[in-house]
Amino acid sequence: EYGTAQELYFAGLKLEQFGNTNFDYMKYYEAALAIDPNNVLTNTRLGQIYLKRGDYGKAEEHLKKAVDVVTGNHKKAEDATSLYYLGLCYMKQDRPEEALDLLYRATWAYAWTSAGYTLAAQLEGRLGRWDKALDAAERACAANTHNIEAVLAKTVALRKLGRYEESTIINRAIYEPDPLNFMAMYEHFLL
């Protein structure tokens, strides 16, 4: 009934999104890859699914295929979804340099600018590169002023750089209206 990889992908996606337990959406994704093993949408979606399940090996396998296709003739992918998720996959596997490369590349696509820079800020901080962490956090905030994770990454970087007054002011703007934000609460305690 479905003749193309794209049709199978969207059928699987619909089943997955609406939680139809009568059909296994994974079979539709697998059938799509049987027709087109390099299908970007399907490989990216399977990568996301395996990433959520904690199966980083399978996630990496599918996401790498998608990244190879979208960056085949160039470094700047128009759709950077697979780059972002492969970066996240590497981050989960404690492979920070590989993760950073992909996350920074994902930021070239506006849809992933704030999210990519947020994770980059967290990783740069984890590596003790606080100037780079601050730069990434500021870029994430510039792309999305409501990205609380990015704002918190900025407060941490500022504190680590000894800029306590700036960090306190920014953290207070998060903590006072949302006293149950545990990261902001912890930063408030540290400051």
Question: Would you give an account of this structure?
Answer:
The protein has helices at residues 5-18, 25-35, 40-53, 56-70, 81-92, 96-106, 113-126, 130-143, 148-160, 164-175, 182-190. Helices cover 73% and strands 0% of the residues. It has 191 residues and is mainly alpha-helical. It has eleven helices and no strands.
Provide the low-confidence segments as ranges.
Answer: none
- Rg for CA atoms: 19 Å
Assign the structural class, choosing from mainly alpha, mainly beta, alpha/beta, alpha+beta, or little secondary structure.
mainly alpha
Q: Distance between the terminal alpha carbons, to the nearest Å?
A: 62 Å
Helix content: over 70%
Spell the H/E element sequence: HHHHHHHHHHH
Quaternary state, please? single chain
Percentage of residues in strands? under 5%
So what's the overall shape? Answer: elongated
- The total strand number stands at 0
Number of helices: 11
Main beta-sheet annotation: none
Mean pLDDT: 94
Descriptive key words:
191 residues, mainly alpha, 11 helices
Summed up, what is this model?
By secondary structure, the protein is an all-alpha fold. It is built from eleven helices and no strands.
Give the helix/strand layout.
Blueprint: H1 5-18, H2 25-35, H3 40-53, H4 56-70, H5 81-92, H6 96-106, H7 113-126, H8 130-143, H9 148-160, H10 164-175, H11 182-190
Helix pairs in contact: 1-2, 2-3, 3-4, 3-5, 4-5, 5-6, 6-7, 7-8, 7-9, 8-9, 9-10, 10-11
